[in-house]
C-alpha cells in the first residue's frame, strides 16, 4: 500500500531551496515524463486563491526565491550550506507503508462514493512532551481502491509537536483533484496552494477517491504510554475542550463542495477507552459539519 503524507509541523528543521525543476521528487522513475504544474487549473467552486504568497506562514517568514522550492534536510547535523534556512516550519512528504506498529486512531470514515476532494478546518493543540519516536497527528486521508493490491492513500494534516502554540489554532486544508491534469492539489487556508501529489504515483486515485477518513492518529512504541491525541481530551467533552474538525466537506465531480449527513460516517477507534471520536453533527450554516476526537492516551 502506498501512502503519501504532507505533514506540516513546527519543529526547527532545516531546509534547502532547490530549483523546482530539480527537486528530488523527479528522481522517481514514474515521474520521468511528468510536467511540473505551477498552479491548479481548476478549483472547487467558491474557492479563491490569494494573489501572492503570504509574508508569514505559521512563523515561517523566510521563503525560497522564485523558482525554487523548500526541501527538508534529511539529517539535522548536515548544516553546511549557504542556501540553508532554519525555521520553525516543516513540510514533510513521506512515502511509506502505513502498517505501522503501535499506531492508534480515532477517526470518522465516510461511506464509499466518488470523492474528488475533501475540505476541513481542524483545530491543532499544543501537547505535553512526547517521548522520542512518538507522534500525534490529525489528518484528512483519501483512499482509492485497487483491484488487486490494496489501497492507495494520500493524506494532509498536522503532526503536533511540543513546541507549537499555547492555544488551539484552526487551520484549513482543501484537497482536490485537478480536472485537467488529474493531480491532487492541496491548499492551505483556502488561499495558498502548497503543491500537489502527481497522479502518476496514485493510479488508484484516478479519477477519484473512494472513501475518506478524518481524525487523529498516534504512533508509539509499546514500551512507553501512548501520547495524547487532539487536545488530550476525549471526544465526549465536546468541541473546544476536545479537538475538533469543522466545515467538513467534500468535492464532487463538478467541483462543488457538499456536506454528508451523519449517517454517512462510521466512527472508527481501535482503543476506544483511550482515543475516541464522537459528536458528529451539523451545526449552523457557517460551521456545517462538526466532530470532536481525541484522548489522553496512556495505553501501553
Ligand atoms: C515516458 O515517455 C516515453 C516515451 O513516450 C515512454 O516510452 C515511457 O514509458 C514513459 N515513462 C513513464 C514512466 O511514463
Ligand atoms: C516572523 O516575523 C514576525 C513579524 O516580523 C516576527 O514577530 C516573528 O518572530 C518572526 N518569526 C520568526 C520565526 O522569525
Ligand atoms: C562547508 O563549506 C565550506 C565552504 O563551502 C567548505 O570549505 C567545507 O569543506 C564544508 N564543510 C563540510 C563539513 O562539508
UniProtKB/TrEMBL annotation:
Pfam family, any one: Neprosin
Positions of the Neprosin PEP catalytic domain: 37-300
Signal peptide extent: 1-20
InterPro entries membership: Glutamic_endopeptidase, Neprosin, Neprosin_propep
Keywords for the protein's UniProt record, in alphabetical order: Signal
Protein name: Neprosin PEP catalytic domain-containing protein
Organism name: Zingiber officinale (Ginger)
Amino acid at each position: 500500500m502506498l501512502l503519501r503524507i504532507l505533514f506540516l509541523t513546527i519543529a526547527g528543521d532545516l531546509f534547502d531551496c532547490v530549483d523546482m525543476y530539480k527537486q528530488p521528487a523527479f528522481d522517481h522513475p514514474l515521474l520521468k515524463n511528468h510536467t511540473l504544474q505551477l498552479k491548479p487549473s481548476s478549483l472547487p467552486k467558491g474557492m479563491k486563491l490569494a494573489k501572492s504568497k503570504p509574508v508569514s506562514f505559521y512563523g515561517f517568514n523566510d521563503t525560497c526565491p522564485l523558482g525554487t522550492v523548500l526541501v527538508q534536510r534529511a539529517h539535522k547535523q548536515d548544516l553546511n550550506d549557504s542556501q540553508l534556512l532554519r525555521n520553525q516550519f516543516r513540510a514533510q512528504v513521506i512515502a511509506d507503508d502505513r502498517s505501522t506498529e503501535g499506531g492508534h486512531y480515532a477517526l470518522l470514515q465516510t461511506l464509499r462514493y466518488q470523492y474528488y476532494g475533501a475540505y476541513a478546518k481542524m483545530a491543532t493543540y499544543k501537547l505535553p512532551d512526547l517521548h522520542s519516536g512518538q507522534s500525534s497527528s490529525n489528518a484528512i486521508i483519501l483512499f482509492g481502491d485497487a483491484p488487486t493490491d490494496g489501497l492507495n492513500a494520500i493524506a494532509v494534516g498536522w503532526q503536533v509537536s511540543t513546541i507549537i502554540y499555547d492555544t488551539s489554532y484552526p487551520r484549513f486544508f482543501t484537497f482536490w483533484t485537478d480536472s485537467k491534469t488529474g493531480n491532487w492539489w492541496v491548499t492551505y487556508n483556502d488561499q495558498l496552494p502548497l503543491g500537489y501529489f502527481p497522479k502518476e504515483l496514485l493510479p488508484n486515485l484516478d479519477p477519484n477517491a473512494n472513501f475518506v477518513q478524518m481524525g487523529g492518529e498516534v504512533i508509539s512504541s509499546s514500551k512507553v504510554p501512548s501520547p495524547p491525541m487532539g487536545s488530550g481530551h476525549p471526544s465526549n467533552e465536546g468541541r473546544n475542550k476536545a479537538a475538533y474538525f469543522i466545515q467538513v466537506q467534500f468535492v464532487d465531480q463538478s467541483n462543488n463542495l457538499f456536506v454528508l449527513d451523519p449517517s454517512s460516517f462510521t466512527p472508527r477507534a481501535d482503543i476506544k477507552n483511550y482515543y475516541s471520536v464522537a459528536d458528529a453533527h451539523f451545526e449552523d450554516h457557517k460551521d456545517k459539519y462538526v466532530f470532536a476526537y481525541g484522548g489522553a492516551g496512556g495505553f501501553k
